[in-house]
Amino acid sequence: MFLNGAAHIQHHYLFNSAAYRGPHRNPPWYLPAGMDPVLEIYKLYDRIVADCLALDPSLRVMMATGLHQDPVDEPVFYWRLRDHARFLRAIGCEFDAVEPRMSRDFLVTCKNQISGKETAEILLSGRAPDGEPLFEVDNRGATLFVTLSYPHEIKPGFNISINKKILDEFESEVVFVAIKNGRHNGIGYFLDTGARAAPDAEPIPLTDLWRRMVSAF
What we know:
The protein is an alpha+beta fold. The chain folds into two domains: 5-66 and 187-215, no CATH class; 76-179. Helix content is 24%, strand content 27%. It is elongated, with a radius of gyration of 22 Å.
């Protein structure tokens, strides 16, 4: 059993958790005060774990989490372009195709590497009113993997500079996705009722779980 679903809850709602001791709180328009999705998901996990531990004692149960979450030092707002192709055309980019990906990311396909370089330069020129970059670009030649990485709130009257011109009301070009509360920590946890780990056992790589499961059979 892989218990990874709670990572998404922690990622976006950790500031609402009673377990969080930091200074930040999510705004009430994002999640009403008093709601604790982290507690809710762990109550669900508790029932699942109870079901597993109530199985016949002769059965071997393995549970794993791939990682866990640490609170971020500052909240990070996630934004997504409303119409990726229309926005790229509006800022003067030449491209053959654009494919939206998860949350803030999109893939831009250009005619060749030269066109890809020019499009990347335009996107990287984008600046918010506070001077922070708007985009991160992984230039792969004729394709670009782009993230709308601006981390703060975007309010009405948010005018950006990009490709040597001002684009008014950038807030109309984006939709709100979420507020990042937690960041990935690569240490996960593993329980195996068939092999108790020694107190001083060395950490194991996540890729080792497959071998351990297969060896049980």
